[in-house]
């Protein structure tokens, strides 16, 4: 079975704390990385955590380390794919379409947004 959410997709957070309480509910972002074994994804600008790394020095003498803000993985069930037509969260379906290329017919599986029926 193909993955419903892939790298580069636009997703929206559908569960969790709302923005008034410092959460990410309703935020949209691009998927940076997918961890299929853990069922987690890394979303741009979502679940940002503060990481403290030890201050060091490079060979050229510049300082490294300090406080960094990085994205942490979020569970795939907490996000929904954004429909390209309505810009709202939607479910994902799969359908088989026949494509003709260079006179050869080929059947391919296509992901589509269930709300609008548009291919993703």
Automatic annotation (TrEMBL):
InterPro entries: Rib_uL2_dom2, Ribosomal_uL24, Ribosomal_uL24_C, Ribosomal_uL24_KOW, Translation_prot_SH3-like_sf. Residues 46-119 form the Large ribosomal subunit protein uL24 C-terminal domain. GO terms for cellular component: ribonucleoprotein complex; ribosome. One of its GO terms (molecular function) is structural constituent of ribosome. Keywords: Ribonucleoprotein, Ribosomal protein, RNA-binding, rRNA-binding. One of the proteins that surrounds the polypeptide exit tunnel on the outside of the subunit. Belongs to the universal ribosomal protein uL24 family. Part of the 50S ribosomal subunit. This is Large ribosomal subunit protein uL24. It comes from Galactobacter caseinivorans.
